[in-house]
């Protein structure tokens, strides 16, 4: 899957294996990141957390994650991304495992900060590899594997975590998830071994200075669009299990089934839409137009789906809304990083994605705290759902009108 930017350095089979392991890493990223939401129905009560306290703990992950995406993106353009992946995953796996031992909010926040530090490698690193190796006609499918992982991570995490929560409590969720993530290092060490050597590692070819990238208006405009893309997804990831159990009175088992359904649909449709977008491009469609159209459609649909969840009065209706949300999110997750790679090109993929991801993930700082405050101060979830539907609705307009023509920026 080598691009025209660099000569082929290793076999296509090995590169495909690397792409698959990157996707698996992203899946584990979302399993571990979302564990706090699965554990919330029991964890929140045992630790004595208010909605604001729980929202603060969720937000703490992004205090480290969002700004470090900028730094890690810069590093990915200058150092061996394969070694950085291994170090990042080892750190976040240990942070996940140790969360099972916390006894109060302070330590929980510290471990969420370390989790954010480790997980900050995922998207700048994957975009660096994909921009260097994957041609435009395969870009949709490579990013679709990552997009599917973003969905299947919460699906796998919710299903397995819900079963653990129901049978063993909330602490074993973190112990088991952290240990499984550590096992990823074994195949990665084998697959990436030749790629870590100087003659085949993703090269540094006159990387664009970070200061230059920070002065490009487009990266900030796309970052705002990314903020709108993340806001609704993070709400569903962290607050939905608690809402369904505590406000709707569903059992942990029913909550697990419904939440898993939405994420599973998202994962399947990400693969379908990734392949479809590649076929459109291969048939002669303009890639920039295709990816912009899918972003606008995804933002509009998830706004409708989130608003509808609040008014759904039966588990079947909730399930239907979450299926729509899963489909909508598949359009967003398949294309948001592909667009970053198109704008950046191989020279700036790490830095560009780092800046875009930093801006986009400030939604994870603002959203959980805003949601917690609205629940505590306004006496319910109504205003939280209203805001969470409004942000992606505005995002549809932003991707349509505010984001400039999608083409590689001039780094001169």
From TrEMBL:
One of its GO terms (molecular function) is transmembrane transporter activity. It is found in: Membrane. It is a multi-pass membrane protein. The keyword Ribosomal protein does not apply. Its main location: membrane. InterPro entries: MFS, MFS_dom, MFS_Na/Anion_cotransporter, MFS_trans_sf. Keywords: Membrane, Transmembrane, Transmembrane helix. The keyword Transmembrane helix applies. The chain crosses the membrane at residues 12-31, 51-76, 88-115, 144-165, 172-190, 255-273, 293-312, 319-344, 381-400. Residues 18-407 form the Major facilitator superfamily (MFS) profile domain. One of its GO terms (cellular component) is membrane. It holds the Pfam family MFS_1. PANTHER family: FI19708P1-RELATED, SOLUTE CARRIER FAMILY 17. This is Sugar phosphate permease. It comes from Novosphingobium kunmingense.
